[in-house]
Batch of 2 targets.
Target 1
Amino acid sequence: MPPADHPASRSGAHAGPVAGIARAPLAELVTVLLEPGADLYGGLLEGLTDAGARRATVVSGIGALQRTTARNVRHPVEVFPIRDADRAFVTVPGPCEIVSLTGWLAPFASGEPHLHLHFAASYVERDESGDAVRLIGGHLSPGACRAYVHVAVTFAVHGEVDGRPDAAYLFDDALQVERLSVPAAEG
């Protein structure tokens, strides 16, 4: 639950720790393979769209990246939405190895697909004591990472329950952004 002075608390958007629960049957697994040089975000979104997926969750992702830029929130903000001035963008020229990839695909209220991903990738940095493996991670933005040799990401594509979707991005007035929305928790 956000702190009492957090805008989401003032909006009444979160009455308890559970904002919603999404349940959906697994329709299928879809693996998207990217060519060297492909934009990681754009390629994954295109692959999911080509596969007909509207909602999906990352199961696993592996591969190497040429260049990697991670986006992170630099400090707490009082005014939403969070702007680029409130974020840190850290770039590593590569090569990097994906060690973790998580996130989901869900549509905006307009029906346009939105892919929200976070990742971690390792890279080698030489210092006075020799090679050292370092880690970079954060939010994945369009154009931020390019495939190096091979990238494969598997998604669990969601089915629908009683013809209803399990999740969508809806506008949150308090935070002034589109946020993932799932049906309210029962009970």
Target 2
Amino acid sequence: MSNFPSDIFTEPQGYSVNTLEQLGPLTGMAGIWEGIRGLDIKPKAEGPKKQAYVERIELQPIDPQTNGPQLFYGLRYHAHITKPDQIKTYHDQVGYWLWEPATDNIIHTLTIPRGMITMASGKAAADAKQFIKSFFRLRLQNSGVPY
């Protein structure tokens, strides 16, 4: 783990701009992936409903991102899911997978077109081949959102 400067304004210097070589534990995720045997089981009043689906996800490297002393390498992604033999979207999501080498933090952001966003985080060493992400829920006072 690197030391951060004592102020929040100093940006990293001399870092690699080759994202594919710097993705750490996200390296194996880069590319285009397709799955043809997905199964969604969703709760219904009359009991769980099973729905087969087909999934395509593209994870493309982005330029290194700095935020004051922070440096992130990452992948922008788009996941598109349909029911077999249909064109209509069953599920769609976009977001980023980010890795911060100085802290070993992984951040996953996602947005779906029903007005929902999520961010998850975890830690993984640069050479990790698997990791676990965790979700947490923030409660907004007076937001009008039922809990």
